[in-house]
Structure formats: C-alpha cells, structure tokens
Design brief:
alpha/beta, Rossmann fold, four-stranded parallel β-sheet, five-stranded parallel β-sheet, binds phosphoric acid mono(formamide)ester, globular, 2 domains, single chain, 350 residues, disordered N terminus, 39% helix
C-alpha cells in the first residue's frame, strides 16, 4: 500500500494494491463530486504544476481538483521562470539547476507535478523522464508525473477507473486493444506504454497492434509479458489492426511517434528525424478507427482515447461521437482519479 517506504513520486512502479486502492478512492470522490458533497480534505495545500508542453485535461483536472479539495494548484510556465536545468546545461541567469528548483518549491508547497516530453527535450527518448527523476531526487515533497516521454501514469489511472466503471468491475480476461492510429502530428509513446503496462497488470487480454516501426521499448514489452503471466491475462503484438479489433471489449486507437525517428537507445541519432516520422505515419494512413472496424469488435465494445483526438485521422466523428465512445467520461475521470492520487500522497512532509 501507499506508505512511508513507498516512493510515490514517479509512480510508474506501484503495486496492483496501490492502484486498486486509488480506484476505490477515485470512485468515492466522483460520487461526492456529482452529489455536491464537500470533500475539502486538502485545505491550505499547494500543488506546483510545471508544464513544458500544452495541456487541456491534465492542467484543468489538477487545477479544478485542488480547488475542490480545498487547496490550490499553481501553474508554472517554464518560459517565465529560470528554466530548470540538468548539470552541464546551465546558462547564467537563464537557467536554474533542478536540484535548486526542487528544493525551493519543496519549501513552499506540498507537491510538484511536471509534464515534459517532445520538443522541450529535443525528442530524446527518456530525457523528460530523467528530468522528472532529477526533481524527485532533490524535492522533499511528492513528485507527480503529468506525462513524460516514457510514462503517463495519470492517464492510465483515469483509464483504469473508466474500464472498471464501464465493465462493472469485471475486466479480467476481457479483450483490450491498444492500437496505433494515424495522425499527422508527432506524439509521445507515453500513453500506449502506460496503458499496456496497466491493463496487463489488471489481468486483461491485451493486444498491442501497430505497424512496423511503431514498436515500444523492448523492456516495456518484456514487462507486459511478465505482468500477463503474473496477473492471469495475456499479451500479444500484431501488425493487423482489423484482426486486433475482432471480438474486442475495449479499443484504444491512438497515434504515437515511430521510435526510429526519435533519438533513442535503439539508434545512433543525435537529432530526431521528423521527415522519417511523417513518412512512416503516412504509410499507415489506413490505421483509422472507423465504424467498419468497430463492427468487428463485440457489440458493446467501448471506444477509448486519452484525447486530444485527431478527428478524420485517428478516428471518425461517427465513432468518437457514437454510442460506444466513453472517451469523455474517461477524460472526466482525470479529475476524480488525480484527486484520489493527491489525497493519497500529499499532506505532511516526511
Ligand atoms: N490526455 C491528456 O493528457 O490530455 P492533455 O494533453 O490535454 O493534458
């Protein structure tokens, strides 16, 4: 369980009991929110939110969530402060060492949350994660990962709640498909990574569908296989989106970047190749979630997406606005599940 010896700051390696506890708290907080029952458990607490990337859901769910809990979420724009820097990246009076920023903010608030991936870290895979780890190393308060270039644990938590609610708590052995879907934009690998990790931990039968070139890191795939063995589900990969959709209970078609276009441990690049990323994405233009593919799945299949969705590329309007879509309830659960997370890890300083 979440406790003194558990480091909740990066929260990509919590136990099944930790996550299940949070889902129960989240469901309770959702009921209270819908019924207008006050739940201001975090009066006078401050969450610092450092966003290196755009956000609609993450920023507003944390900000509204803290208000509803009686505290305050403070937005920090990296371009309006001395840019937090790793050792060796200092620029006099322009940057400030993460070691110093983390300790200063810890003196003033109760948690620090960070989003960082993509252009701010030059698409160097895992650099955003390294920056969050550096904050966690120095901060005396919990660190919340609001999405880096490997993980998006808050999204996976909200998704877990949505799956639990829409499958009435009976999600073990249900077929879950995380599938690539075409987009003209370059998106990080964090959502598919966190989602396949969590759903294998949930004991679901997970199918990971993606064209060649859109693989996840080998160690993530290995962990999914371990979780499938450990938690009684299964995990398989395919390059066939339609075969993956057959008989599915949940489909989650979304875009991410082809990993060979990024700067990563699997290649010798020093800069990302955005032309290659675009070329590989265009080759996968047929990977759209439309009604024809939805009809291959179970009648009551649920369509999920972390949002924002690229309509007309990743998904048709008919599907995202249709009766099988639960993506807006899923987005709403960002509020409830992150409130659960904050009540569980914030509070007195250790
Ligand atoms: N899904 C998600 O993280 O949304 P935002 O990018 O709007 O925060």
């Amino acid at each position: 369980m979440l406790g003194k010896n558990k480091d909740p700051r990066i929260n990509d390696d919590w136990s099944i009991d930790d996550w299940k506890l949070l889902i129960e708290i989240a469901k309770d907080l959702k009921k209270k929110f819908k019924a207008g029952v006050p739940h201001d458990y975090m009066t006078r607490q401050t969450l610092f939110m450092l966003f290196f990337n755009d956000s609609l859901r993450t920023r507003n769910s944390f900000e509204a969530g803290m208000t509803q809990l009686g505290g305050h979420a403070h937005f920090l724009d990296p371009s309006a402060i001395y840019k937090p820097a790793l050792p060796g990246e200092d620029v006099p009076y322009k940057t400030e060492r993460i070691a110093d920023v983390g300790r200063v903010l810890s003196e003033m608030g109760n948690a620090i949350s960070i989003r960082i991936y993509g252009d701010p870290v030059e698409w160097k895979y895992a650099k955003g994660h390294k920056i969050i780890q550096e904050f966690a190393r120095w901060a005396d308060v919990p660190l919340i990962n609001m999405e880096d270039d490997i993980f998006h644990p808050c999204q996976a938590l909200a998704d877990w709640q949505a799956i639990d609610e829409h499958l009435n708590g009976k999600y073990e052995k249900k077929k879950y498909v995380m599938s690539y879907a075409f987009s003209g934009g370059l998106k990080p690998l964090a959502v598919p990574t966190s989602c396949v990790l969590h759903t294998t931990m949930m004991g679901m039968d997970v199918v990971f569908a993606r064209p060649k070139g859109f693989e996840l890191e080998d160690s993530i795939i290995a962990r999914c296989k371990e979780y499938a063995d450990m938690f009684g589900g299964s995990f398989e990969e395919t390059e066939d989106m339609e075969a993956a959709f057959e008989g599915a209970d949940i489909v989650y078609p979304k875009a991410w970047a082809p990993r060979d276009a990024l700067v990563g441990p699997w290649n010798n690049r020093t800069v990302p190749d955005k032309e290659l990323a675009n070329k590989l994405a265009l080759q996968a233009r047929g990977w759209i979630c439309d009604q024809r593919k939805m009809d291959l799945a179970n009648k009551n299949v649920k369509y999920m997406h972390c949002l924002p969705a690229d309509r007309g590329q990743e998904v048709t309007d008919e599907v995202i606005d249709g009766p099988n879509s639960i993506c807006f309830d899923e987005a709403g659960n960002r509020l409830h599940s992150q409130k659960a997370l904050m009540t569980a890890i914030m509070g007195k300083k250790e």
